[in-house]
Design goal:
The chain has 353 residues and is an alpha/beta fold. It is 26% helix and 24% strand. The strands form four sheets. Strands 2, 4, 5, 9, 10, 17 and 18 form a seven-stranded mixed β-sheet that branches. A six-stranded parallel β-sheet has the order 13-12-11-14-15-16, with helices on both faces. It starts with a strand and ends in a 5-residue tail after the last strand.
Length: 353
């Protein structure tokens, strides 16, 4: 496989660390996310080794983190700062008459979310990159662009959790753990982690959960109602794409509470709502359910913020990196991720220059 030289606003990044995310599995299994064949991977940190003639924000030598968002910078959403809602992400691609960024003897190769991070080098539009403090370790930096931005962003940008509020997090993997620790930073006083894996619940407590529930051993609805003295929670975050978990989350909301759907669901999945006052409390208690995407993150602002919090010792990213691996171990690491035994594996690459 060959990588083209950067043109226009493109940037060539020497990858130093690339995180493994469950979204890569979903894309591989469903075929969603672009044209195949494709290089997967979207949690990237590395060093810039070349830039196109029009690149202005990013320069050679910068340490950068990539984001799985593709903001064109010109549409109405981007101009409002809502880069997660860009209506023209394809504007960052090369034109049909231009040489592909990646290709082999059989033709062009796609890049997941415009990145394709399971490689030693990536060629990406500078709009998807943020320069960071070089004191930031690459392994911890790599997971900020997705796991941290999504979990922290849904708490800060979407739910806007306030001091004294209560939350429940269903699914305590990488994204869920970040929601827990950022909710603690935001001042939430009741933080409930729900999972079916003992090791993840232990991590949830380490990251700031005040209570944890193993839903294989107790009824989660009953347990949460008991913990909240039947008042329910202000915010319920569903990090797993399982409709039944969403149905459970709807049952533990308090007055004006909201369920936030974070984990991707399979095509055709359904969630059943009963808004009638006689069937539920959605209407009289002014409850809601809301979809979210990558934490509504404006990553140009959010990624440097998370880097600063880590360097100040206020954000725990070290315990999110369960193991570092070589790219040859990726299949085994994904099997471990599917079993739910680890938070994040990160592929590391040695410096090439």
């Amino acid at each position: 496989m060959s990588v083209a030289e950067p043109i226009g606003h493109e940037v060539l990044v020497e990858v130093r660390a690339s995180g493994l995310c469950h979204s890569d599995i979903s894309v591989a299994q469903t075929g969603m996310g672009g044209d195949w064949p494709m290089v997967l991977g979207h949690e990237i940190a590395g060093v810039v080794v070349a830039v196109g003639p029009s690149a202005s924000r990013i320069k050679v030598g910068d340490h950068v983190v990539a984001a799985a968002l593709r903001p064109c910078g010109q549409c109405r959403a981007c101009l409002k700062g809502a880069v997660w809602a860009c209506s023209q992400p394809d504007a960052l691609d090369r034109g049909p008459d231009e040489k592909p960024r990646l290709e082999d003897e059989h033709g062009a190769i796609g890049q997941m979310t415009g990145l394709g991070g399971f490689a030693e080098k990536v060629l990406v539009h500078e709009n998807q990159l943020v320069s960071i403090d070089p004191a930031m370790p690459f392994e911890q930096a790599s997971i900020i662009g997705c796991a941290v931005a999504t979990g922290g962003g849904v708490v800060l940008n979407v739910a806007k959790v306030q001091p004294g509020e209560s939350i429940a997090v269903f699914g305590c993997g990488g994204v869920g753990l970040n929601a827990i620790q950022v909710a603690a930073l935001a001042g939430a006083t009741r933080i409930i982690g729900v999972d079916i894996q003992t090791d993840k619940l232990e991590l949830a407590q380490k990251f700031g959960a005040t209570d944890v529930i193993d839903s294989t051993k107790v009824d989660a609805v009953e347990a949460i109602q008991k913990l909240t003295e039947s008042e329910g929670v202000d915010h319920a975050f569903v990090m797993v794409g399982v409709p039944q978990v969403t149905q459970t989350a709807l049952q533990i909301l308090g007055q004006s509470g909201t369920v936030y759907l974070v984990g991707g669901m399979s095509p055709g999945a359904e969630v059943h709502l009963h808004p009638s006052p006689g069937d539920s409390l959605l209407l009289p208690f002014q409850q809601g359910i809301r979809g979210t995407w990558l934490g509504s993150s404006n990553f140009y602002h959010d990624i440097p913020m998370y880097v600063d919090l880590y360097l100040q010792g206020r954000l725990n990213l070290d315990d999110l990196v369960s193991q570092t691996i070589s790219i040859d171990d990726i299949d085994k690491a994904y099997e471990e991720l599917e079993r739910g035994g680890i938070a994040r594996s990160v592929i590391t690459f040695p410096a090439q220059s």
